[in-house]
Each structure stands twice: as C-alpha cells, then as structure tokens.
C-alpha cells in the first residue's frame, strides 16, 4: 500500500503514545495522545491500508517536582531526560525494523527522543520541523527553563551540555534541519538560527510564496536529491488557533487547515518519510467543541502524512 521506500513490507505503522507533559508547565498535554487514539486514529490508519501496531501508551512515572529540582534554569531535567531517552530507544527500534514510528505527544521536548531514535537508525536523515516556535533555546538563552522550547538545541549539540542529557549524541547537522511556520521566535533563538545558518521559513515566506513553493524550497535545502530519509516533527501550534485551538502556546497568524495538510501530503509524496511526530495537542485547554476540533485535525494530519488524499 505504501510508497515509502525505506519501509519493510507489509508497510507497518507503530503508534507510540507519549502522554508526557514534563517539558512545559501546563497540565493536560499528556492527555493528547490518549484522546487521539480514542478518536479512532488506529482504525483510521488501518482503513488507509496500513498494518498498525499499538501496544498502549507508554507509562511514564508521575512528574514529581520535589524529586526533580531544577538544574540551572532547566525544569524537570531528570524526568525529561529519562522519558526522552526511553522514547529514543522505542522509536529507534521501530525505525531499524523498517516500521514507521508515529509518535503522539505530549509536549515537544519528546522530539529529543524521537529524532535521536530516527538518527540512530538513519544517520543521514533530515528533519522537517513544523511549528510556530523554533524550540532552539539553549541552557543559556532560555528564559523559562521549559525544555519543550529547547529540544532542537540539544539535538544539534548547541550551548553548554548538562550531564543529565549527555546520552544525546548531537547527530543532527544544521544543514539537515528546516523549519516551516515560524512566527514566535525569541531574540536569542534568532541569533542561533543565523549563527548556525539554519534554514527557516516563517509565516512571512508562506504568505509570500505559497505553501507549495515553500515545501519545495524546504526540501531543496535539506534533501536536494530527494534521497534522504525524512523525519517530520509537527507541532499543532503551527496551525492557526482558529484551526487547532487546544494547544499550550497558541500564536495567531498560523498555517491554515489546508496548508498544514499540504505539508503532510507533500512529504508523503516524496516516498522518504521514516518517522512522524504529532505534538502539543492539549485537550484540557479551550471548550469541548474546540478540543474535538483540535483532536480531529491531529488525526487528519497523521492520515495526510500517511497517504490519505483528497481524490
């Protein structure tokens, strides 16, 4: 069924549920994966022709701030490290088996784990990061200490390295990373993006060129010969809050419903997808109708990235 060239037959998706919220302060984002699965995502993927494995949500020990005092500015560092390391092992194991890991978050600190796992299986993989935020603060530049705003800097090996995260091998190279949808970037992050020559397409570029051209330009940068594996890490706050209201850090002026889906469809069409993250659905925020809307969008983004077409 699949046109994805790096997968084994029969084409299999491993749904990795990560009900984890330790990378940021707002409760509820740990409910995101549970709601996505309750909404029928597993069966929806089977209807697309995939074999799907889902062995329940990963059980993470309760966050207990008393047990996990800050290291410098970093909040919950031991918990985040332990969880992301276990996620890296799970995702890497699936990727090495020729299975497509679809990780449902939880907060975006989890990408430290998912992308580490992908790079363990595919050292030359590139990352398409779709988000309102760059998530590239370092231990020095972070104001909040919330690690969900920092996973990219850990993956790139930027800033001073806390011992707690020494397991992360900075295997991601700046030229293998591209952003789409940015619109809320701190001054320190802008400097990091410039200093490391990291390609980023903000909403200004999306407005200027249109999403079709943007995806083409993004892929031309990270995957010019269209031969490298792709890890797509999608934060639902990349979408405009009118489309996906139930998320922890919504920012006006985001991607439309169709722009978000087009990115997923176009990545699938390359045949190069090896891992997918869908992060930051928070069902505790907004009213019931908005939660339902956000969960439905989350499910349809995953389906689009796994081959669902309009015709």
UniProtKB/TrEMBL annotation:
<keyword id="KW-0479">Metal-binding</keyword>
<dbReference type="Pfam" id="PF00491">
    <property type="entry name" value="Arginase"/>
</dbReference>
<dbReference type="GO" id="GO:0030145">
    <property type="term" value="F:manganese ion binding"/>
</dbReference>
<dbReference type="InterPro" id="IPR006035">
    <property type="entry name" value="Ureohydrolase"/>
</dbReference>
<feature type="binding site">
    <location>
        <position position="235"/>
    </location>
    <ligand>
        <name>Mn(2+)</name>
    </ligand>
</feature>
<dbReference type="GO" id="GO:0005634">
    <property type="term" value="C:nucleus"/>
</dbReference>
<feature type="binding site">
    <location>
        <position position="237"/>
    </location>
    <ligand>
        <name>Mn(2+)</name>
    </ligand>
</feature>
<dbReference type="InterPro" id="IPR020855">
    <property type="entry name" value="Ureohydrolase_Mn_BS"/>
</dbReference>
<dbReference type="GO" id="GO:0006525">
    <property type="term" value="P:arginine metabolic process"/>
</dbReference>
<comment type="pathway">
    <text>Nitrogen metabolism; urea cycle; L-ornithine and urea from L-arginine: step 1/1.</text>
</comment>
<feature type="binding site">
    <location>
        <position position="135"/>
    </location>
    <ligand>
        <name>Mn(2+)</name>
    </ligand>
</feature>
<feature type="binding site">
    <location>
        <position position="133"/>
    </location>
    <ligand>
        <name>Mn(2+)</name>
    </ligand>
</feature>
<dbReference type="GO" id="GO:0005829">
    <property type="term" value="C:cytosol"/>
</dbReference>
<dbReference type="GO" id="GO:0004053">
    <property type="term" value="F:arginase activity"/>
</dbReference>
<dbReference type="InterPro" id="IPR014033">
    <property type="entry name" value="Arginase"/>
</dbReference>
<feature type="binding site">
    <location>
        <position position="108"/>
    </location>
    <ligand>
        <name>Mn(2+)</name>
    </ligand>
</feature>
<comment type="similarity">
    <text>Belongs to the arginase family.</text>
</comment>
<dbReference type="InterPro" id="IPR023696">
    <property type="entry name" value="Ureohydrolase_dom_sf"/>
</dbReference>
<feature type="binding site">
    <location>
        <position position="131"/>
    </location>
    <ligand>
        <name>Mn(2+)</name>
    </ligand>
</feature>
<keyword id="KW-0464">Manganese</keyword>
<protein>
    <recommendedName>
        <fullName>Arginase</fullName>
        <ecNumber>3.5.3.1</ecNumber>
    </recommendedName>
</protein>
<keyword id="KW-0056">Arginine metabolism</keyword>
<keyword id="KW-0378">Hydrolase</keyword>
